[in-house]
Amino acid sequence: MAENNSKVIITCAITGSIHTPSMSPYLPITPEQIAEQAIDAATAGAAMLHLHARDPITGQPTPDPEIFRQFVPRIRESTDAIIALTTGGSATMSLDERLQAPRELKPEMCSLNMGTMNFGIFPLAQKDRDWKHEWEKSFLESSRRGMFRNTFEDIERIILEMSENGTRFEFECYDIGHLYTLAYFLERSLVKPPLFIQSVVGILGGVGSDPECLYHMRSTADRLFRNDYQWSVLAAGRNQMRLGTMAALMGGHVRVGLEDNLWLEKGQLAPDNASQVTKLRRILSELGLETATPTEARQLLGIPVRR
Length: 307
Fold this sequence. Notes:
18% strand; BKACE; 3-keto-5-aminohexanoate cleavage protein; 3-keto-5-aminohexanoate cleavage activity; 37% helix; single chain; alpha/beta; eight-stranded parallel barrel; TIM Barrel
């Protein structure tokens, strides 16, 4: 069983590829907005920054490494936070597209989704909105008939290509079977501990957001990986703070950010990513838990200390 941690790593996912510009005026779109919100989130206490890119005109998710280059170096220069680039991109991108920016920018960490799944964000298209861009509604609706592809071959390719650069992984597990897939790659020595496992709950098509699901994922990871992993929880939508707090009390780490949840509390949109980090830090402090610095997070995750 993984030991409980004395320090909680806060990851902040800045913009993602799920929410669209019409859902919140505070969702960062341009490289400047992404950089500013990432730097502010790090200042607020996020030890890790999970980054996607968007077309600065339309707000559509993009894999273009040229756009990543417009904000990643600035964030690196301005913070000591661990930078984790997505290899998931969005379900509409090919694997080659998803790997472009991580391959070129060689981050300390990148995400790695551990299985092909139905990733249902189409219910967001059914709400009454004033859509700013033509692509938004059809993009959301496409998840009804599509799938998020991450085959065994895809996963192995990502591991082999990114490991050449010394990149470590944020293993995103949306269901119990994804943990067993990760155990398979560990048994083959394609991945090395300490593993950073991100249990993702509340996505339509993945495991639910019930507390029992969280316990099940934690106990399964304990059985499969024992002391070889660090555990974090990403709870989508309104469950973000509730299940994030629960995860921290169970000895885990927590991810917040506008990629996963646009709200600060019921009826109030989060004005930025830093506000969610600040709220989580306050909750953790009141529970007697400390947040990890980027240096402490690197030590827990087996990442060389940054010079």
